[in-house]
Specification:
Structural class: alpha+beta
CATH topology: Aminopeptidase
Radius of gyration: 14 Å
Number of helices: 2
Number of strands: 3
Strand content: 25-35%
Mean pLDDT: 87
CATH architecture: 3-Layer(aba) Sandwich
CATH class: Alpha Beta
Strand order of the largest sheet: 1-3-2
Distance between the termini: 32 Å
Number of domains: 1
Helix content: 25-40%
Length: about 90
């Protein structure tokens, strides 16, 4: 993101991805995996509607160090921030 970091672009991208997944693809659940050191991404995902559902401790090797994998998901029935229309929660 460069000099645009911290302006909410990651949250907006994640929110639009959920909107597309729920309202275009009719998915009910979307899951992701991120590494625990990526705090900015984890916050962006949470703002978009994801919730942490678990961790796999020291499961990844990144930047030469062990780190946790963080698993998050979002449900169509909890997604209320659609710009695509449709009926969230019906997928």
């Amino acid at each position: 993101m460069g000099d645009r970091r911290g302006q909410g672009l990651g949250s907006e991208a994640a929110r639009l991805t959920l909107d597309w997944a729920f309202n275009v693809l009719s998915l009910h659940n979307v899951m992701l995996r991120a590494l625990d050191w990526n705090v900015g991404a984890l916050r962006a995902y949470e703002r978009a509607g994801f919730r942490e559902i678990g961790r796999r401790r020291e499961a990844a090797l990144s930047r030469g160090r062990r780190c946790d994998e963080v698993f998050m998901d979002a449900l169509s029935t909890e997604f209320t921030d659609s710009v695509l229309g449709g009926s969230p929660g019906s997928g």
